# Entry
Amino acid sequence: LGYREAKLLAPCVLGEAGARLRGHEFHYASVIDPGDDEPLASLADGEGNGIGQAGGRRGNVTGTFFHAIAGA
# Structure
């Protein structure tokens, strides 16, 4: 939990695949069975250490506890 940098794994409303977004995360959950969902982004903490994948996407629908900060 805390400041994060997200790298998008696929194009979506937030940007193209590979785009980097800065923001924060203050909720978390464990996914038991992702079904057909793919991860939305890979995350790094405020010091740049990779901490795994986050969020989910299926088609044009996305969901994540990562909150992007506009223009950051």
The chain has one domain: 2-68. The mean pLDDT is 90. DSSP finds no helices and seven strands in the chain.
